[in-house]
Amino acid sequence: MEIITVERRILEKNEDIAKENREILRGKNVRTLDLLSSPGSGKTAILEQTLDLLAGRIRMAVIEGDVQTDNDARRIAKHGVPVVQIITHGGCHLDARLVRSAMDSLALDDLDILFIENVGNLVCPAAFDLGEDEKVVILSVTEGDDKPLKYPLAFRAAKTCILNKTDLLPHVEFRSEVFRENVFRINPKATLFEMSAKTKEGFGAWTAWLSDTLLP
Ligand code: MG
Ligand code: ZN
Questions:
Q1: Distance from the CA of 34 to the center of ligand 2, in angstroms?
Q2: Which ligand is closest to the CA of 128, given by its number?
Q3: Across residues 118-133, what is the average pLDDT?
Q4: Ligand nearest to the CA of 7
Q5: What is the number of domains present in the chain?
Q6: Are 22 and 124 contacting, i.e. CB atoms less than 8 angstroms apart?
Q7: Cα angle at 198 between 194 and 202, to 5 degrees?
Q8: For residue 168, what are the domain limits?
Q9: Which CATH number is 159's domain given?
Q10: What is the pLDDT at residue 3?
């Protein structure tokens, strides 16, 4: 009983800060995406390709959430965009307060899109509003095609879904057709992109969506 009460209070506070974050970001005309996935599905690799493909056209920045290291932030920094690292020291998700502190060190006036790479975890990040416009859930073909059914909260919280590492499809058991069925069973209105951060296959549709649909 006690634990439930405390947790609810934390979530309520989070909702308040997330609402403020959203007002600040929208006020600055920044579109914000919160990327969710299990560890190893390729969030950082997708970001690296995206940053390169949209460089010079769209002004972007990245907030990196990580349990222990700043390895991913170092990778992102090589692509010439502002990046802020949040190390959660074991914490398994980002919350709105952490994102606010990262936002405070970014020049929001100079941004069109802010990407937030959440901690690799498909469970609790789905429950925390950070003030983003949308959550994007990423799965790779080396994972199970039934993951939308196993993690319905994440696949429902995200309007947009990315299937990554499609270059590996010939070598794994993953059934794309079953995966698509599962995605749309959980979220009938989902937008689904299928791509490979290694070969850049499928990135045209994704970057077109970012530049034409997400941005006003
Ligand atoms: Mg990463
Ligand atoms: Zn957590």
A1: 15
A2: 2
A3: 96
A4: 2
A5: 1
A6: no
A7: 30
A8: 2-214
A9: 3.40.50.300
A10: 54
